[in-house]
């Protein structure tokens, strides 16, 4: 192995040039990677908050539906909005009234789409007997 004194002059220059290029690459890449990392984390946080919002809206709609089973639309909405605002405040999520109302309305529509089609249908039409029973051979 060669000692430092025995290296050719160009090797020392190449080492300094490579060190400078590597330092420049780190200086250029670090802010870009930081910006992209922050953008990625903010998107993920926004998605997480959106999921929490939908879950809280479903809870709020269920609470209002159980409190007023036979109607009371404005009271249901007011109760659901109050519950959802309190839960979001506890989680530190700031949200406008329109977005909160839209989320609650979507939860109500999803609930109605799941429940309403089955109302009024006789149980025998919904629950079918297994194949083979009641069939004469």
Structure description:
Keywords: Membrane, Transmembrane, Transmembrane helix. Pfam families: Phage_holin_6_1. The chain crosses the membrane at residues 17-34. This protein is mainly alpha-helical and 137 residues long. The chain has one domain. Helices cover 74% and strands 0% of the residues. It contains four helices and no strands. It has helices at 9-67, 73-91, 97-115, 123-126. Helix 2 crosses helix 3 (97-115). The longest helix has 59 residues, at 9-67. The radius of gyration is 32 Å and the shape is rod-shaped. The mean pLDDT is 83.
Determine the strand fraction and express it as a percent band: under 5%
The radius of gyration computed from the alpha-carbon positions, rounded to a whole number of angstroms, is: 32 Å
Helix content: over 70%
- Mean pLDDT value: 83
So what's the overall shape? rod-shaped
Secondary-structure content class: mainly alpha
Number of helices, where a helix is a run of at least 4 consecutive DSSP H or I residues: 4
Quaternary class: single chain
Strand element count: 0
What order do the helices and strands follow?
A: HHHH
Number of domains: 1
Termini separation (Å)? 96 Å
User: Uncertain regions: pLDDT < 50 for 5+ in a row?
Assistant: none
Major sheet characteristics = none
